[in-house]
Amino acid sequence: TCRVVVLVSGAGSNLAALLAAHGDPAYGARVVGVVSDKPAAGGLTLARTAGVPTAVVAPQDFADRPAWDVALAESIGVFHPDLVVCAGFMRIIGSPTLERFAPRILNTHPALLPSFPGAHGVRDALAYGVRVTGCTVHLLDAGVDTGPIVAQGVVGVEPDDDEASLHERIKAVERELLVRTVGEVARGGLRVEGRRVVVG
Ligand code: GAR
């Protein structure tokens, strides 16, 4: 079974979907640890309820950014993951984690990359006036949402959408896409050929 560590900063609805899937041995992946930068993240509560060990690596507990980056890599490493999944982790991940775990780090983003990277993908897509947006699961690299794309899902924008309503519909597609993609990667592995990712 593929050992998965999930990084969360927020509510953890994507984590919840992974936790709902991982009980089935046929799924091929098991969440073995959840790491957050925020002590109050809802995702931590979800993990504890599911009996999954957690760790908090809060920037305020470290002298500087490089020290936090090293601590993040170490706290992920404690769980010996085969795959790391950023599911609403709202911080840029530095080289200690990348050097140790890439390319086996997935991120999920609430827009169709390369459009609307960054912390406000839903808001930015809405403000631009696109009629179609969605979500992207991609490999993490040193840029902001620039890594090779693994999977995407499409969501139409409705005339009366606001950021919250659009994000809700994106999240419904996103959690299915993430669960499917993590399972496929867990069972089949992944290969990177330039910008193309081959799963299975
Ligand atoms: C998700 O929509 C995820 O794509 C987004 O935060 C949400 C987390 O929801 N991530 C980013 O915007 C990263 N730039 P969740 O905590 O309920 O899973």
From TrEMBL:
Annotated active site: H109 (proton donor)
Binding residues for N(1)-(5-phospho-beta-D-ribosyl)glycinamide: G12, S13, N14
Catalysed reaction equations from the record: N(1)-(5-phospho-beta-D-ribosyl)glycinamide + (6R)-10-formyltetrahydrofolate = N(2)-formyl-N(1)-(5-phospho-beta-D-ribosyl)glycinamide + (6S)-5,6,7,8-tetrahydrofolate + H(+)
Domain Formyl transferase N-terminal residue range list: 3-182
GO molecular function: phosphoribosylglycinamide formyltransferase activity
CDD domains per record: FMT_core_GART
Function: Catalyzes the transfer of a formyl group from 10-formyltetrahydrofolate to 5-phospho-ribosyl-glycinamide (GAR), producing 5-phospho-ribosyl-N-formylglycinamide (FGAR) and tetrahydrofolate.
SUPFAM superfamilies assigned: Formyltransferase
Pathway the protein takes part in: Purine metabolism; IMP biosynthesis via de novo pathway; N(2)-formyl-N(1)-(5-phospho-D-ribosyl)glycinamide from N(1)-(5-phospho-D-ribosyl)glycinamide (10-formyl THF route): step 1/1
Binding site for (6R)-10-formyltetrahydrofolate: R65, M90, R91, I92, I93, N107
Pfam families: Formyl_trans_N
A single Gene Ontology CC term: cytosol
Feature type site, description Raises pKa of active site His: D145
UniProt KW keywords: Purine biosynthesis, Transferase
Family from the record: Belongs to the GART family.
Entry EC no(s): 2.1.2.2
InterPro entries: Formyl_transf_N, Formyl_transf_N_sf, GART
UniProt cross-references to Gene3D superfamilies, sorted A to Z: Formyl transferase, N-terminal domain
Protein's GO biological process: 'de novo' IMP biosynthetic process
Name recorded for this polypeptide: Phosphoribosylglycinamide formyltransferase
